[in-house]
Amino acid sequence: MSSTGPEAAHPSSDPAPSGSLEREIRAEIADAEREDRPIRRMLRTARAWVARHPRIELAYRVAVALVGTIMTLGGLVLVPLPGPGWLVVFLGLAVLGTEFHWARRLSGWVKRMLDRFWQWWRQRRAARVAREARAE
To answer: Of 106, 105, 96, 97, nearest to 69 (Cα)?
Structure first.
């Protein structure tokens, strides 16, 4: 993820992960998104078969829209409750993103905003620790 705008000028806003766990998770995500994975090849083949049959394709897109929308809305209902609300929202967007470009764009935007939030949060926490250290 590359930064643009004023935050790109500051080396402290580098989107590189700060911890080894975060680096490991990002590496696993990147590995899972590779196009040459066998499961992805199989899914592309199945989707190509569906695309050759217009009625099945329509039913498939409707089913994906229903499942993804229900998951996303259900996740939004769960957000204020303890549990995996945001995870369900992101999974619903991922389901929608398999068929709808707007959902892929929205998911990418949400990921970028979440990354920016965590950068801001780490900087804020570091500044608070530095203030407390100076006060002692």
So the answer is: 96
